[in-house]
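Students often ask why inverse folding is considered easier than folding. One informal answer: many sequences map to the same fold, so there is more than one right answer. In these notes we will look at a single instance of the problem. The structure comes first.
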């Protein structure tokens, strides 16, 4: 079946009445939300609140116990299979550090989902990869073996790989874990630039409330049920304290230009 992409004004992600349970343990209950094309949504909540489960549902790794999930009008499994709809950066991406592969080659592997293992990259695909290397600031590392990269450099390589097939939606799972304050500030601007250049819709899962408040248009506060789904500045102080032990003023940081 052919699935047309939604128009710009339509939701790009639709979650309707979703429950999910591991056996008898209900992890998500009555989750409904829509994500508009071009927005950045921060998924926050306490440990065990269901954030990872929700992302796994969106990536087609799990199926809802009840309800529906659609990305670009397609079930997640279909969207992911197409290769050019969804890109993702897991919290701990698998990196074959001992494998003889350089940065450019690893980024090009991001085209496999779209082309298949035997497919041949077009000149336009290869040009896009070179543009990404420059855009994420790793062009000088293009021929460097991946085993010699720092953690921050490797993160940028994996983001470029996730974007190689020009997806519409990018999922980021705890992308600032282990990064200092200066690195977080760089990431905030880096993500804003990428989003604007590629017209991305971004789903950002994070415990880093400062980064979430700086880059996200909407928050989805999840703890089994959806407790809040709105702009960051409207989040009630009592909810911030209950969920995170933080007052709302701590979330009000300078937002990155988008």
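Output (designed amino acids):
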């Amino acid at each position: 079946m052919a699935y047309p992409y939604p128009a710009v004004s339509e939701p790009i992600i639709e979650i309707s009445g979703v429950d999910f349970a591991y056996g008898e343990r209900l992890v998500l209950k009555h989750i409904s939300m829509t994500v508009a094309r071009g927005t950045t949504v921060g998924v926050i909540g306490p440990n065990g609140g269901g954030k990872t489960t929700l992302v796994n549902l969106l990536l087609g790794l799990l199926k809802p116990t009840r309800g529906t999930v659609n990305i670009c009008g397609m079930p997640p499994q279909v969207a992911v299979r197409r290769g050019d709809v969804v890109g993702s950066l897991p919290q701990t991406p698998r990196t074959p550090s001992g494998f003889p592969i350089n940065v450019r080659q690893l980024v090009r592997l991001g085209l496999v989902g779209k082309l298949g293992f035997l497919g041949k990259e077009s000149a336009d695909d290869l040009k896009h990869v070179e543009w990404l290397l420059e855009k994420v600031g790793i062009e000088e590392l293009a021929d460097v073996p991946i085993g010699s990269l720092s953690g921050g450099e490797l993160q940028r390589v994996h983001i470029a790989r996730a974007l190689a097939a020009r997806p519409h939606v990018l999922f980021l799972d705890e992308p600032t874990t282990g990064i200092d304050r200066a690195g977080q500030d760089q990431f905030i601007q880096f993500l804003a630039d990428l989003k604007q250049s590629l017209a991305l819709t971004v789903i950002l899962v994070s415990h880093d409330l400062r980064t979430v408040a700086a880059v996200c248009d909407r928050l989805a506060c999840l703890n089994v049920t959806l407790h809040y789904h709105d702009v960051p500045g409207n989040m009630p102080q009592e909810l911030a304290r209950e969920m995170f032990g933080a007052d709302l003023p701590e979330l009000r940081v300078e937002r990155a230009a988008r």
